[in-house]
Amino acid sequence: MTFFVEHVIVYNVKRGTPRTRLDVPLEGIALNAVVETVVWVVWLLLWDLYPFALFGVGVPAFAILWLNVTLVLEHALTDNIFHGRPLGQHLWNPKVLGFSLVEANGANVALGLVALGPLGALLGLAVFAGSSYVEHRMALALART
User: Which letter, b or e, does each residue of 103-142 get, where b requires 16 or more Cβ atoms within 10 Å of its Cβ?
Assistant: First the structure.
């Protein structure tokens, strides 16, 4: 539900209309919310799989790879919905690559910092908030073009 609300708000911000307006492509935004939920849930499930260690620390390579690839696809889907294009068009959209990687790697670093204890969790929260802010600014700039 959170992702649905987020995308409705962003769609309206992009158009310069009141944020709670519901004359949006509801079906596309609902599908996008489901896709984004799956992306994040699978990422969390993959996080504890460490295929190798670096300096004695397990590296969640599957989760990192999953999030980097699937967020590019999810953001391309979002861009298609926001621009009224067919959903499957340009699913590997280089225009979304930069901010997708900002969000994915911000999330990966943030969750990695949680393992350092309470201070790491606070630092992780700050990293995630910062990367999410940058990602949303970049995505909104693309949506307005």
Answer: bbbbbbebbbbbeeeeeeeeebeebbeebeeebbebbeeb
